[in-house]
Amino acid sequence: MTDLVSAVSSPAHGKGRHALKAPGGSRTRPLSARVNAVALALGLVDAGALVAAALWTRPGWGAAVLTAVLLLVVRSSGRIYRRRLWLSWFQDLPRSLATTATTFALLASWAVVTGQPGQVITALQHLLVLFVVCGEPVRFAMFWLGRWGRRRFGRCDRTLVVGAGKVGVDLVTTMIEHPQFGLRPVGFVDHDPVLDHEDLPVDLLPDDLASAITRLGVGTVILAFSDTRDTSAVDAAITAHRLGCTTLVVPRMFELYQDNHDVERLRSYPLVRLGTAPTSRPSWWLKRAIDVLLAAVALAVLSPVIGLCALAVLVESGRPVIFRQVRIGMDGRKFRIYKIRSVRPGTTDDSQTKWSVQGDARVGPVGRLLRGTSLDELPQLWNIVRGDMSIVGPRPERPVFVREFSAIHELYWARHRVPAGLTGLAQVHGLRGDTSIADRSRYDNYYIANWSLWLDLKILVLTVGELVCRKQR
């Protein structure tokens, strides 16, 4: 499999950037193929069982609403409504009972803390017991119907397998013989397969991974590497993620893997399910709303500060006071960033190609103050309101350096999967200015892989601490 890297796109030659710019595969599929019917049905079953139990036990409207909210939140957090390959009620039963018991524990704690009478706790107990009695038989039927529907009507996700070795061929054969797992193989992506083309159970595709996903409307990608480098596996996973696909990985030493919440089973093969791309989660919409709100408020509050900084620059070195520069943002799109100018204008404009102005004689006292306190970056709040950037994310770079770093540093291109940020994980770990690009890239890709609203809050707190410590120094 020496050429497998080229099959999944080589960022050093621009193919990784092409993968980021390609249209999302999930958007090319019909809505019926994107909706997980089993997960939706399980949610409806829980809602119906909860209503029936509440009508029977009559715990009161307040207690019923609280129970409903807590139960659905706990069961969602426990991944009861997740997508899954293995539709087994027996396999899912311990998780289902555990989330219901957790809900009762929370409700009982609430009743004790708020001084509710004993009959309220009894009513809630009866409600949840009846919820289990009503819901679990119907859940059993939903799992059975899901398996039957996959076999009878072909309700299966179009699937690509990256790697046409023995493991990949075994996986495809299993998918074909057991459609109840919900995967329909449509091809292999591998430019150097171990087996002859005639011996493969499905077609070997000539496309690179991004093109194949888009052309065939693929919903799931399985990485079944055997003899290739780990870096190409990461490239493939990032490409599949960015195009909206469910990504499953055959782990190394898979024979020793135990089942857990991130491991699926395709009969005897464990498949590690990678998390969805951050930008495809509902919480990302909340991040965007928070970005706009905070940036707009900050612009209004800090406008006098921005005005004073602009006046200081005007007095020191004249116009223009706002510095504009082209940067690369999400999906490789160019945008114009705004900063308060901290460098005196020169006879030639080298801002697009000069890496750092540290030690530059053109930086006067005002410029040093602005750069040392990061006040020069306040106009970027307007970039956040416009949607060019986010408050937290990888720092945007100039096009010439993006091309250079993508050719030298592995997965530098992958940091453009999310919008650029005013601050980021690399910056709060001291990677500002003339520091290691490889380290920055690793921090940025770690941030994307582990993104959450909590991580954003943590980075904001660390940013404030970094600014305070810098002022003290």
Key words describing this protein structure:
single chain, alpha/beta, 10 strands, 53% helix, disordered N terminus
Description:
- This protein has about 475 residues and is α/β, with parallel strands linked by helices.
- It has helices spanning about 5, 15-20, 25-30, 30-35, 35-55, 60-75, 90-115, 120-155, 165-175, 210-215, 230-240, 280-315, 365-375, 380-385, 400-410, 425-430, 435-450, 455-470, and strands spanning about 155-160, 185-190, 220-225, 245-250, 265, 270-275, 320-330, 335-340, 390, 420-425.
- The strands form three sheets. It has a six-stranded mixed beta sheet, with helices on both faces.
- Strand 3, helix 11 (about 230-240) and strand 4 form a beta-alpha-beta unit.
- Helix 7 (about 90-115) packs antiparallel against helix 8 and helix 12 (about 280-315) runs antiparallel to helix 14 (about 380-385).
- The relative contact order is 0.10.
List the helices and strands and how they pair.
Elements: H1 4-7, H2 15-21, H3 25-28, H4 31-34, H5 37-57, H6 61-77, H7 89-113, H8 118-153, E1 157-162, H9 166-177, E2 183-189, H10 209-216, E3 220-223, H11 230-242, E4 246-249, E5 263-266, E6 269-273, H12 282-317, E7 322-328, E8 334-340, H13 365-373, H14 380-386, E9 389-392, H15 399-408, E10 420-423, H16 425-428, H17 437-449, H18 453-472
Parallel strand pairs: 1-2, 1-3, 3-4, 9-10
Antiparallel strand pairs: 4-6, 5-6, 7-8
